[in-house]
Write a structure and sequence with these properties.
alpha/beta, about 40% helix, 12 helices, binds 2-phosphoglycolic acid
């Protein structure tokens, strides 16, 4: 069975709650689609406004992070239950910016993935290499390691329902997109790695996005690759172009 495409916006640290409401209202008519899942991953404080604004539409709201403990003395953190209660369905885990600026590791990513799954949130699990790692020729090894650790102690049936986002760090926010073939090479390697960890059925079910300077001009050719099941979109998710990315065909 063909995998359903999923296009998610990653708003990062942009938009106040009132701006989030306005952006949702602007994008709602543009991102209508019968065959693509559409997710807006928004800053935590924007979640209530965004959930309210997209009620009754095809859009799901996602968070950009969660903490892996259930509750307690973790000042500033947000739990899976809080997200769920607020109406969140997806959560980005292990974005390279969180790894770089907030000291997230493959181990914390794994804990967060397991917590999201336990609570019924769909994780969008990020992986990707730096430019140095690409030049050193170790990018596939690096990404396989990230994937193997992220999925430690995750059952096949749960893994099949998650989303992986391959985001080469050198392509994020730089305007330098991976070529279709570069993106496909890694997305296929990730699928093969999932097959090694689990089995063919899990590898065929899991959805793998490409992220890194996706825009209205390059989405169609990237998303037509056999192992690319949509995109995780930063900058272009904050404007009308996001509608063109969702309706890339
Ligand atoms: P970009 O960001 O589309 O602005 O490159 C992608 C991401 O960081 O998820």
């Amino acid at each position: 069975m063909a995998r359903r495409k999923i296009v998610a916006g990653n708003w990062k640290m942009n938009k106040t709650p009132s701006e989030a409401k306005a952006l949702c209202e602007e994008l709602i008519p543009l991102v209508k689609s019968d065959d693509v899942d559409v997710v807006f991953c928004v800053p935590a404080i924007d979640i209530p406004a965004a959930v309210e604004a997209v009620k009754g539409t095809n859009i799901c709201i996602g968070a950009e992070n969660l903490y892996f403990e259930d509750k307690g003395a973790y000042t500033g953190e947000i739990s899976a239950d809080m997200l769920l209660d607020a109406g969140v369905k997806f959560v980005i885990i292990g974005h390279s910016e969180r790894r770089e600026y907030f000291a997230e590791t493959d181990e914390t990513v794994n804990k967060k993935v397991k917590k999201a799954i336990e609570k019924g949130l769909t994780p969008i699990i990020c992986c990707g290499e730096s430019l140095t790692q690409r030049k050193q020729g170790i990018y596939l090894d690096w990404i396989r390691m990230q994937i193997k650790i992220a999925f430690q102690d995750v059952a096949a049936a749960d893994a099949a329902k998650t989303v992986i986002a391959y985001e080469p760090i050198w392509a994020i926010g730089t305007g330098e997109t991976a070529t279709d073939d570069q993106a496909e090479e890694v997305c296929k390697a990730i699928r093969d790695c999932i097959c090694e960890i689990y089995d063919q059925a899990t590898a065929e079910a899991i959805r793998i996005q490409y992220g890194g300077s996706v825009n209205a001009g390059n989405a169609a050719s990237l998303f037509s690759k056999p192992d690319i099941d949509g995109g995780l979109v930063g900058g272009a998710s904050l404007k009308a172009d996001f509608g063109k990315i969702v309706n890339y065909k």
